[in-house]
């Protein structure tokens, strides 16, 4: 009976990214350009991998999946953020917030799992090259990709169901520029104990678990590379995993800082800047990192964009 006396929140007010209105126009243009770069760059990578047979390898199969995840992750946050940058009242509906929360968290989890699978792919390629074709066959790669997407989606869906059982009766100010679990749970007027337990388990399994597995893979890779006698052999081996290692370093450095930093209010602005890094900057850089030093990717992109220079 008490539940019926509550007024259910139908929309949330976003605090936004910046407190100074005169900066909104500049940052709208900047973020619109970066968002366009994310969509264009990652779409080019996907199309290049699909149309160019030399890129039909396990590594590029997972890179195409990563590019798709980056598009989903950025698209779940940026359109609404851009809209709020030019609106006086920065709001998002309850349903829109839940949808954003689901797409963002599922893509974030899927990306963590993909990076781990890609580190395993590099481990097999460098440490067990004679068994690579067998251990990373087409069937195994498809199963790994399906499992990664399924785990990311199901895990996020479970947490969304736990959020939907909560009461939101005010206040409705989200102290961020998009919906995240911690900021949403802080607004609930019912117990969030179960939600916090599930979030903790997800952090342990997804963040720490994948970080440890990735670290283990690269530890074995480094040991194997150091055993190679010729300097050219070492350079060739390191080149095959350098792009992925750079992406992993970029991604984990921002996410670990975001979720392990103290939650005091004076760090909120820094937290927003780091969130921009892993929702916008990293997805922008990923296709550049994977294409700049790869001749085959450049050849494939020139097929799509014949006006590009050699």
Automatic annotation (TrEMBL):
One of its GO terms (molecular function) is olfactory receptor activity. One of its GO terms (cellular component) is plasma membrane. The chain crosses the membrane at residues 26-52, 59-81, 101-120, 140-164, 204-226, 238-260, 272-292. Residues 41-290 form the G-protein coupled receptors family 1 profile domain. SUPFAM superfamilies: Family A G protein-coupled receptor-like (SSF81321). Keywords: Cell membrane, G-protein coupled receptor, Membrane, Olfaction, Receptor, Sensory transduction, Transducer, Transmembrane, Transmembrane helix. The keyword Membrane applies. It is found in: Cell membrane. It comes from the Eukaryota. It is a multi-pass membrane protein. Belongs to the G-protein coupled receptor 1 family. This is Olfactory receptor. It comes from Chelydra serpentina. The lineage of its organism: Eukaryota, Metazoa, Chordata, Craniata, Vertebrata.
